[in-house]
Design brief:
It is a single chain. The longest helix has 21 residues. The protein is flat and about 55 Å long. By secondary structure, the chain is of the alpha+beta class. 29% of the residues lie in helices and 17% in strands. The N and C termini lie far apart (45 Å). The protein has a single domain, classed as Double Stranded RNA Binding Domain, CATH 3.30.160.
Length: 72
């Protein structure tokens, strides 16, 4: 099993998603749920393609964290 960080962003009209550890692997959707499903499918297809091409699967290095700051 592979685990990759996924970033989902709200745009003006929909949502978009990408994984920093898998350059070029992106997805979009009309709703957050659609986008989550689409990026999951995109990552699965991306990893499958790397395996079929005998390319290494990148190690997951990206991390995310929320940072709280005082606005004063």
């Amino acid at each position: 099993m592979y685990r990759f960080l996924v970033v989902i962003e709200k745009t003006n009209n929909n949502y978009s998603a990408y994984s920093p550890d898998l350059p070029g692997c992106v997805a979009a959707g009309d709703t957050l749920e659609d986008t989550e499903r689409n990026i999951h499918e995109a990552i699965a297809m991306h990893v499958r393609g790397l395996k079929e091409d005998n390319e290494p699967i990148p190690a997951a290095h990206a991390v995310a964290e929320y940072v709280a700051v005082d606005s004063a």
